[in-house]
Write a structure and sequence with these properties.
This protein is α/β, with parallel strands linked by helices. Helices cover 43% and strands 15% of the residues. Bound molecules: phosphoenolpyruvate. The site of phosphoenolpyruvate has 13 residues, from strand 8.
């Protein structure tokens, strides 16, 4: 039986305006209690401060996370947001390497690695997203892609820093599509990710401690079965994190 604390993250992506974001944060703060599940919500940049204030006023243990960061501390980088700015508005965690950034915006592994290192150096928790496309899965490359993205993404990260790293395995073909990996397929990929932490990149202690979230159309109807798998330690949730009832049902399924 795993001693790892389940971790459910909500990735709100480019959704919800101020009033909706504040109302959803308030509803979650009112209804998500206890510390048996770690919970984070990741609003769009303009609403980080508002969501932080709501959670803080309500004394909630829900963490605020950002969906991205810039690796450098400041300067002439139009449109970018630095780590110290994120920390200034209460962010404790940051998503790095989401497949929408890898595949739509074109972020390379080198940039993702720079962001991981910068965030960890600043004491932030990192949720590093990895996962294969449908073509890669059909070519039998799921593990190779995950291992490659982990190897590049975690280059230079120490075993000690891994206590601040969460891996989100998100098969690209399952994100926002309504298609979910079967619990068996997801478990197989998660076990291979953990094996790579154990035998490839780090050691038993790191492999046994790191939480590996599943992401890809997780919803109340399929969460319990996915979260029951031995190497699935939580979820990174997109669409279903935008409705309080659905997100709370997934958090409850993780208990
Ligand atoms: C995500 O964007 O990380 C995600 C898993 O989205 P969805 O739950 O909508 O598939």
């Amino acid at each position: 039986m795993s001693q790892r604390k389940p971790y459910i993250g909500g990735n709100w992506k480019m959704n919800l305006h101020h009033a909706e974001a504040a109302a959803l944060a308030a509803a979650l703060a009112d209804r998500v209690r206890g510390d048996d599940v770690e919970v984070a919500i990741c609003p769009a940049f303009p609403y980080l401060a508002a969501v932080s204030s709501v959670l803080c006023e309500k004394g909630s243990s829900i963490k605020v996370g950002a969906q991205d960061l810039h690796a450098l501390p400041n300067g002439a980088f139009t449109g970018e947001v630095s780590l110290s700015m994120l920390q200034d508005v209460g962010c404790k965690t940051v998503i790095v390497g989401h497949s929408e950034r890898r595949h739509i915006i074109g972020e390379p592994d080198t940039l993702i690695n720079a962001k991981v290192l910068a965030a960890l150096d600043a004491g932030m928790q990192v949720i590093l997203c990895i996962g294969e496309t449908i073509e890669q899965r059909e070519a039998g490359k799921t593990d190779a892609i995950n291992w490659g993205q982990m190897g590049y993404g975690l280059a230079g990260v120490t075993a000690e820093q891994m206590s601040n790293v969460v891996i989100a395995y998100e098969p690209v073909w399952a994100i926002g599509t309504g298609k979910t990996a079967t619990p068996d397929d997801a478990q197989q990929a998660h076990a291979a990710v953990r094996a790579f932490l154990r035998f490839g990149l780090f050691n038993d202690a790191v492999a046994d401690a790191v939480r590996i979230q599943y992401g890809g159309s997780m919803k109340p109807a399929n969460a319990a079965e996915l979260l029951a798998q031995p190497d699935i330690d939580g979820g990174l949730i997109g669409g279903a994190s935008l409705k309080a009832d659905d997100f709370i049902a997934i958090i409850d399924a993780a208990r």
